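EI: anyone free to look at a 386-residue chain?
SC: sure, send it
EI:
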Amino acid sequence: MACFSMTDKVFFGKEALCEAMPYIAGFGGKALIVTGRHVGRSPMMDQLKSLLAKNHLECAVFDGITGEPTDRMIREGVEVYRKESCDMIIGLGGGSPIDSAKAIAAMAVLPGNISDYIGKSIEGSLPPVVAIPTTSGTGSETTKFTVITDSVTDVKMLLRGDSLVPDLAVLNPEYCEDMPKKVTACTGLDALTHAVEAFTSVKAFPLTDTLAVSAIRRILKYLPEAFDNGYDTEAREQMLTAAFEAGVCINNSSVTLVHGMSRPIGALFHVPHGMSNAMLLDVCLRFAAQGAPERFAELAREAGVSTNESGDREACEMLLSAVSHLVHYCRIPTLKEYGIGEEQFVKVIPKMASDAIASGSPGNTRRKVTEEDCRQMYRKVYGLAD
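SC: here you go
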């Protein structure tokens, strides 16, 4: 039986943070704000600090999240949390600060190292977490997942547990207006990947199907507009909504092949998560669609990229073409264009394939995926001959 879960309280709109403050005040007396250096010096941070003070709340700031989070960053954040005697955490920024906020909350009370919890469900009473996204893509504000890179093994650790779902999310589209084009593209395509994979996952069920279709419709229409004009209010609002919907989807139906193969590329070559997803989309979705053409065709019809009169093969191709067109529109580079050399990439294909399968995500695909399949797909994504 499928179980549906999401963030307990969600505030949406220009006044979302103000309206959320009485609830945030009920979480504790001193917040650790987890963020990056850019957002840490932004008007959003000033507003957050001001509202915390008006509500008689203290705060400390940890702005050491640079790029995608590592176990070292999490340890540093935990040290600040304990030193400052905080009792709740606010993640402000993109997926990395919010993922970090959840990981810091966990390791502030759990024994051992964060790597000890790979493959285990993180449970227990964690400090309350408030998520305030400034990008539209990861959906981390409503998921039970956090992805942290092991700095020793270069493995992106997917950690999970219902206790990791933030207690409250603040969604203000204005916080996303300052996103550069590249970030808009990568995070938007990350959300698209979430929605498509959740719909085509073996764990999909009607509640997530509805949200996945809604997210895909929004993204196909509004990501190009947000990419072209970051200050398009409607586009930003629609993309923030879609990212949240897609986050709810993966929280309940999980991800599949793209994410499994994406994490090793990010860990070894430091490619932003949404970008590595986008690089893999065409090859991985075409592989997955061969195992469930009727499911992909159903998604194409529901998302409005094909008609009910289209056969499964035609509808499936129309969906894959729409996704590929959007990736091209957003100017996503190839692995080679990104600067990854062929020799260094080929050398680590066996490790990446092994890590991808070990992550468990490819196992949710409606087609059996082997390490050899992953090796072949990595070669194809790079443009190497079979």
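EI: The radius of gyration is 20 Å.
SC: 👍
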